[in-house]
Amino acid sequence: MQDKYIKKTVVFSIVSILIMVASIPAFNSAIVKTTNGEIEICNGLTEVSTDRSWYWKEPYPNYAPSGMPDFDQNQNRWKSISDGGNGIADTNAIGDDVQLIPVGSEVNPGDIIVAPGQNCRLDTNVSGDDVAKWAFCGPVAIANCFWWFDSKYANPDGTPGDGEDEFPLVEDYGNGDDHSSDNVPLLIEKLARAMNTTGKGKTSIDDMQDAIDQWLADTNLQNRIEETTKNEPTFEFIEGEINRSQDVILLLGFYDWVIGDKVVDQSQPFRSWGKLLQTSTWWDYQSFRPTVERLDAIKILLQSTSSDTCEVEINVYESQGGDPIGTATLNPGYLVAPTWIQFHFEPFVELTPDDTYYFDVRQTESGYHYEWYYMSPDPYNRGTGWMDENPYDPYDIAFDWTFETEYYYPPPSSVRRGVHYVTCAGVNSKNTSIAFSDPRYNVSNPGGDDHNDAQYVSHDIYAVSTGSPYPDLDYKCWLPDYPTEYSYTIVEQAVVICPIPDTEPPVVEITKPISAIYFGNAVIYYPFLLPFIFGTIDIEVNVSDNREIEYVEFKITLLNGECESQGTDTTEPYKWKWEEGAFFFRNIEIVAVDSSGNYNYDSLTVLRFF
């Protein structure tokens, strides 16, 4: 009886109010105001930006307190065995190690002979001149990145060992906690198996890409994180990706410049007379007809005519009287007897086999300095190498000069000696430098298992040079001071791991109140023209999104848009108790913000009685 009386009383009281409803202007809901793209809530939001030369990957105090982790590959016998230089496989695998090349087989320098197998531990002892080398730089470089991303999206108040796992990129692999330092070797070994480092003794870029893609699919993150690979990256590309706070792994290639032996192509070794060098070009010259496509050096037979020395210059021509296509200059010194002097061309001179070319020889200072030897009569096959009749020559005969044209065989070339993966930890745009978390080197002052603790890092800094030190390699940057036993370290490829841009806003729906009369937080009459609320009520919201929801903001505003009260909820189910109120119309405004910064809103006009 009492409930019926209350309902009748409430309904009667509302009848006198309905006239006001029609006279109330439409509510102009400025639900979200933005300043520089940020959501403006009642207490405001601020954004801090700084201008600095160095940009470092952001630290996360919970699990990555020093920025990009710097895990170490030099542990747990993560090695493979390769040829030591004799060109023969000497080592026979034992245990679960993988025999890649049979013992006694011929191999190339550095070829992998034995891989560590599925247990990730090299069980085999090295034989002969074969060598065991650390092999897990690829898995470690990716482990650094995965740990950093997992820390970014994890609970910001979490601590290693708390047993909480809020993001699936890195999970507990058997030690009890995903962010414990004891979990690091387990993560690295799982990655090594996924990349087939255990079966090949090294990590190929293709296997790395496939493993990352499969890992993201297995953890249901393929729509949130992606990997791409950039061949021959420039410093500007790497710089841009790091500045965008993407994870960048660089594949470094170690190279040597190998020069073959010089081989003589055309020559005239006979001699009998010497003739004083002049200072003019095309005074004393010689023709030759090559059989090869390059000219690396020319030898001529010289002798001093006095103790005074000077520079001697050789120019090579495609036609008589044309412009030189190659020049070599040196000071031969004081030559007591006829001596063969070699003039090198840098770069080498490109030739067309069987075409006729010319070179002249001159001294750069006037006076008596050097004689160039020739043969008379001419024993050389005419048209291959000779001195044509020179109207200025006092002998007015065709002399054949002593010379040798030489070329490198095989031609000088860059030889790839090895590769190594590093993780970028920071970049300096002003000084063109990059800082690495390098699996090759240990962290600062490690002790025990500190190399598996993300707080200990050694972010080594290296200068970056533009271009390539080798003419036969079309790369865009290299590291002149990277510590390696080889001549040059070139940046070959960059693997970029980054979040997929999220532009999809959350879906927001106010589920309570509905168009009904509420008393004591419960519906007492349904349906009604609008929500009519007597007393305290729980405002409830349904929010869905393809990302985590950072928070849901509840606001009560007056008709003029002024914020009267507000509340925030960060966990489902999203609701807020509206306790304070006064008689008249109010607007309920809901703003939901996801982890990517996207937002959406819903609003509802209600009538509050008290």
Can you characterise this structure?
There is one protein chain. By secondary structure, this protein is mostly beta strands. It folds into 3 domains: 2-30 and 503-608, Sandwich (Immunoglobulin-like), CATH 2.60.40; 54-73 and 135-258 and 414-499, Cathepsin B, Chain A; 261-409, Jelly Rolls, CATH 2.60.120. It has 7 helices and 36 strands. The strands form 7 sheets. Strands 3, 8, 9, 21, 22, 23, 24, 25 and 26 form a 9-stranded antiparallel beta sheet that branches. Strands 10, 11, 13, 16, 18, 19 and 20 form a 7-stranded antiparallel beta sheet that branches. Helix 3 (137-153) packs across helix 4 (183-194). Residues 1-51 have low confidence and may be disordered.
List the helices and strands and how they pair.
Layout: H1 2-15, H2 18-23, E1 33-35, E2 38-40, E3 54-56, E4 79-82, E5 98-99, E6 112-115, E7 131-134, H3 137-153, H4 183-194, H5 197-200, H6 205-218, E8 225-231, H7 235-243, E9 247-258, E10 261-268, E11 273-276, E12 285-288, E13 294-304, E14 312-317, E15 324-330, E16 339-350, E17 357-363, E18 370-375, E19 400-401, E20 403-409, E21 413-428, E22 433-437, E23 460-463, E24 465-466, E25 477-479, E26 488-499, E27 507-512, E28 517-519, E29 522-525, E30 532-534, E31 537-544, E32 549-557, E33 563-569, E34 574-578, E35 584-594, E36 599-608
Parallel strand pairs: 28-30, 30-36
Antiparallel strand pairs: 1-2, 3-21, 4-6, 4-7, 5-6, 8-26, 9-21, 9-26, 10-20, 11-18, 12-17, 13-16, 13-18, 13-20, 14-15, 14-17, 18-19, 21-22, 22-23, 24-25, 25-26, 27-31, 28-29, 31-34, 32-33, 32-35, 35-36
